């Protein structure tokens, strides 16, 4: 052996490179197709959009759900990074506003993400995992804004998912007509959440964590 790479080794390395290139093309195609058309598309549609063979896509991912899982994990990573950045913002209120805005912007731009988040069945395990990762950091962002006297002190952590549901529903229903009108609703909600003279007292107490999880569909007792 003279140390020269064998033809078999070069061939194997080339195959690995090709496989990774096809994997990345398929992932990018899935991002685009899911964002534009939602989760009803199949792996054949994604393969065609990627310009790779259908058999190749199935060999790389097995099924559509594997693609959905991987791309949703990317979104959760983005949420976690945004929460960490919000915690270091010089202005605690602006950090809180920026976090809510960023998450809702992602939802507005990605039909597939909205379908996972609002799914009654298929998206529940994914969303439950995302909440376990994201909500503690979001709670810290919220508490920081409250400690700074900018966010009304009677808001509870269980109010935050309800805000995402409220504005998310606006996005879902107005998207065919206006892609940006949800921002008006977010402004209304944020004004109601900020500290200002003459705040109206809350008429009822906030949901408990267990109640909010039942609303979200994570507690079998609530089904």
Q: What does the secondary structure layout of this molecule look like, with pairings?
A:
Elements: H1 7-37, H2 43-50, H3 54-61, H4 64-87, H5 92-109, H6 111-118, H7 124-147, H8 159-174, H9 182-193, H10 209-216
Helix pairs in contact: 1-2, 1-3, 2-3, 4-5, 4-7, 5-7, 5-8, 8-9
Describe the structure.
It contains ten helices and no strands. It is mostly helical. Helix 1 packs across helix 2 (43-50). The model has no long low-confidence stretch (mean pLDDT 87).
Summary, kept brief:
This protein is 70% helix and 0% strand. It is built from 10 helices and no strands. Helix 2 crosses helix 3.
Labels describing this entry:
10 helices, 0% strand, 223 residues, mainly alpha
Q: Which stretches are poorly predicted, pLDDT < 50 over at least 5 residues?
A: none
Radius of gyration: 22 Å
Globular, elongated, flat, extended or rod-shaped: what is the shape?
A: elongated
- Average predicted confidence as pLDDT: 87
End-to-end Cα distance:
67 Å
Which percent bin holds the helix content? Answer: over 70%
How can the largest sheet be summarized?
none
**Total strand segments:** 0
Proportion in β-strands: under 5%
The secondary-structure class comes to mainly alpha
Write the H/E string, N to C: HHHHHHHHHH
Number of helices: 10
